[in-house]
Write a structure and sequence with these properties.
Elements lengths: L6 H10 L2 H6 L5 E3 L2 E4 L11 E4 L4 E4 L5 E2 L1 H9 L3 H11 L8 H30 L4 H9 L4 H6 L3 E3 L5 H5 L2 H9 L3 E2 L6 E2 L4 E7 L5 E8 L7 E3 L3
Antiparallel strand pairs: 1-2, 2-3, 3-4, 4-5, 6-9, 7-8, 9-10, 10-11
Helix pairs in contact: 3-4, 5-9
The structure holds zinc ion.
Length: 230
């Protein structure tokens, strides 16, 4: 990932950021000579073994071994990806991240994939509520003790039986993205929904974005569960 952002920009950020200020705005630091001490935010402790060395640009915990620079701290503390941590630091310093062209293209691609999966998720949710054949799915959930509120919280949905319901619902770009993650198959003459007459469970990443689907059949398909393969 770090190859997507020029290394000199990353180094420039790390040179300019005040590590004590960055960390000190998130946890309480106590000055100890040229350094700072704190109770470690990454493990449970009562006596401070977390050290910040602004002159060297790193932190180190003698308790749990947590160690790194400003970017690593943001990644760990705020659960960010490398790129997001760089974005955050750059914004703090009022700088724009100079992505190279291939990075821009790959970000656009991943945004459009996530966007397509989110659209599919919303479509399936809507179908669970409104599709004429969804009563079987709702009965199944009720039978398994899943109430409407829980279904909503986990974004459970319903894939209609037609075989092209999702295909017809989305625009051309979204369709292409869904084909590339194989939630829609193009092995036949026309694109077809991978999931038909299934209860749909979005599989989410640690940041809550839909990255794939699992679908449980409501009919007598041989495959009780299938996942979108990509
Ligand atoms: Zn620690």
């Amino acid at each position: 990932m770090s190859g997507l952002i020029p290394q000199h920009f990353v180094e420039n950020l790390l040179d300019r950021i005040d590590l004590a200020e960055l960390i000190g705005s998130r946890i309480t630091l106590k000055k100890a000579g040229a350094n700072y001490k704190a109770c470690c935010p990454f493990h449970d402790e009562k006596t401070p073994s977390f050290n910040v060395r602004p002159d060297k640009g790193f932190y180190h915990c003698f308790g749990c071994g947590a160690h790194g620079d400003a970017i690593a701290f943001l990644q760990e503390y705020e659960n960010l990806s490398f790129t997001e941590a760089v974005e955050s630091l750059a914004a703090h310093l009022g700088l724009d991240v100079p992505y190279d062209e291939s990075a821009k293209a790959s970000m656009r691609k991943s945004q459009s994939l996530t966007g397509a999966l989110e659209q599919a998720k919303d479509f399936y949710r809507q179908c669970l509520k409104q599709h004429p054949s969804a009563s079987l799915a709702r009965d199944y959930l009720q039978h398994r003790g899943v109430d409407a509120e829980t279904a909503e919280r986990f974004a459970v949905g319903y894939a209609p039986p037609e075989g092209d319901a999702l295909v017809r619902h989305v625009d051309k770009d979204t369709l292409e993205a869904l084909i590339s993650v194989k939630a829609v198959t193009d092995r036949y003459e026309r694109p077809r929904d991978l999931f038909r007459n299934r209860l749909m469970f979005p599989i989410r990443n640690s940041r809550g974005r839909t990255v794939a689907f699992g679908g449980r059949t409501l009919g007598d398909d041989k495959a009780k569960y299938i996942n979108s393969p990509e």
